[in-house]
Amino acid sequence: MTLKNKVAIVTGSARGIGFAIAKRFVMEGAKVIISDVDDDAGQAAQEELAALGEATYIHCNVAERLDVRNLIAETLNAYGDIDILVNNAGIVAGGDFLDLDIDDFDRVLNVNLKGTFLCSQAVARHLVEKIENGGEPGTIINLSSINSVLAIPGQLPYCVSKGGVAQLTKTAAVALAPYGIRVNAIGPGSIMTDMLASVNSDPAARNRVLSRTPMGRVGEASEIAGIAVFLASSDASYVTGQTIFADGGRLPLNYTVDVPEA
Predict the structure, then answer these.
(1) pTM value?
(2) Which of 79, 158, 179, 255 is an active site residue?
């Protein structure tokens, strides 16, 4: 159990990649805070994971400073410590560049980038205080994206926010390195979550995804969770300021690949 007795906060973890990470952390022995704004889904996630280990749901809108402060306080009240933070909470808002509503831009940046900063700063302050009292340094893992590098014209706020997360990861890693606190990111490619479920029933959509994926398949959320466990563990003790891209080979690709028949 790689993360035995570690306390982890995973934001946006009621479903999707966040839930897969929370589940894997529990299976690795961690005590996990499931954080989300969807209370029904969050409670359901808590019930499912509580059957495997220790998990507690706490409502939190990461874009709101008071919510983040409450998240930290309730985590410490529940488990007495924080060792790991996974900044997974994220939203999208599509629109043409010329017509994009500024409110949509602000909403995405507030959750995806500002929320990542607020949670990281709050947890880092706790970790530094713990280190100064003789405790061990913890780690922060951000969910970036291949769209921190690549561009989708109809998803400007999302791409900009993930580019910001990539740079936030590097800057925070350098700032916190003197304390031994590691900060890294994961950059998923096409992962089978609710957002991509339509590719299973839409051959054209499936072909578009697979034509840019040399490995010829969509990734699974559990595969992202495996990377998170590595980054949270002592096996990654000398890794900081990095983004690990899990994209089936998409970023190195300079053309399209043949798609096999379904």
Answers:
(1) 0.96
(2) 158
Catalytic residue status for 57: no
**Mind spelling out the 3-state secondary structure of the chain?**
CCCCCCEEEEECCCCHHHHHHHHHHHHCCCEEEEEECCHHHHHHHHHHHHCCCCEEEEECCCCCHHHHHHHHHHHHHHHCCCCEEEECCCCCCCCCCCCCCHHHHHHHHHHHHHHHHHHHHHHHHHHHHHHHCCCCCCEEEEECCHHHCCCCHHHHHHHHHHHHHHHHHHHHHHHHHHHCCEEEEEEECCECCHHHHHHHCCHHHHHHHHHCCCCCCCECHHHHHHHHHHHHCHHHCCCCCCEEEECCCCCCCCCCCCCCCC
Structural domains of the chain in order of their starting residue, each with its CATH number:
7-246 (3.40.50.720)
Query: pLDDT tens digits for 200-235?
Result: 778 888 888 899 999 999 999 999 999 999 999 999
